[in-house]
Design goal:
Shape: flat
Distance between the termini: 50 Å
Strand content: 15-25%
Number of helices: 3
Order of helices and strands: EHEEHH
Length: 99
């Protein structure tokens, strides 16, 4: 049975967690959406015969684009200038914390 699971990036810091996820992908055909702070950033899919099937690739791309459209729609009310200002503020905060 193919299952789709969420896997937070923070959980990937442990090698055993990565191995467990990859093992499930290989053995069970599990699919993982890798998220960071609740936002999708990547997907782990099984490879059949060493290469992804064309239909799986197309489905993965479709899912990715749907996720991107969903994120864009949720953030449509935010201006580019506001996003850039937030990013710059976050960078400054991280850099000052390093000092």
């Amino acid at each position: 049975m193919v299952s789709q699971l969420n896997l937070e990036v923070k959980g990937l810091s442990k090698t055993s967690r990565v191995r467990e996820a990859l093992s499930r992908v290989k053995k069970n055909g599990s699919r993982y959406i890798v998220t960071e702070n609740g936002e999708p950033v990547a997907m782990l899919l099984p490879l059949a015969g060493g290469k992804p099937k064309k239909k799986d690739q197309e489905k993965a791309w479709q899912e990715l684009f749907q996720l991107m459209e969903s994120v864009q729609a949720r953030n449509a009310h935010i201006s580019v200038a506001e996003v850039e200002a937030d990013v710059e503020a976050a960078i400054r905060e991280i850099r000052s914390a390093r000092k």
